[in-house]
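Shape matters. As here.
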Amino acid sequence: MGRMCTKCEIKKDWDEFYKSKGGKNGKQAQCKSCQKKECALDKRRVDEYGQACSSCGEYKLWDEYRLVPFTEKRKIRCVSCDEYVNSAINSTLKSRYGITYDDYLEMFEVQGGVCAICGEPETAKKKKSDEPRLLAVDHDHETGEVRGLLCTGCNQGLGNFKDSVYNLQAAAKYLLVQ
């Protein structure tokens, strides 16, 4: 048996519908998959006036979102959620590299928002959003001294060459010969 979903208009088995005390035969009118899609759209509601914050889920006007540096795009987190995340970033930067988030932002601005090696902005995306990742803090692993900010590719490249000038020169020589 089953029933017709009022959204997708496909007849589905009863187990494809959530329970509902007020619904026909004790089930919701829309199937589970249609309700999940609708819920996902509601969470990321975006229109000309504002959007739903990716952290708290509340719909807020555009002036409650900061601009992503060096772009015309707005962040996906509202200012209050962004400040909370920034305080976590600040703690991480302080404990790992001895710099504050303000120090990081100053370096970012001095470098023009691009990688210190290739001169390109970060293209790798964060796992949970479409936002680009922060540039990585490059530091000397022996002294701990911060050298600059690098994109994911260049930072991993230096790591793969074990931060060795000799290894990098050998790689460059190899590329020139081949």
Residues 44-97 form one domain. The CA atoms of residues 64 and 80 lie 8 Å apart.
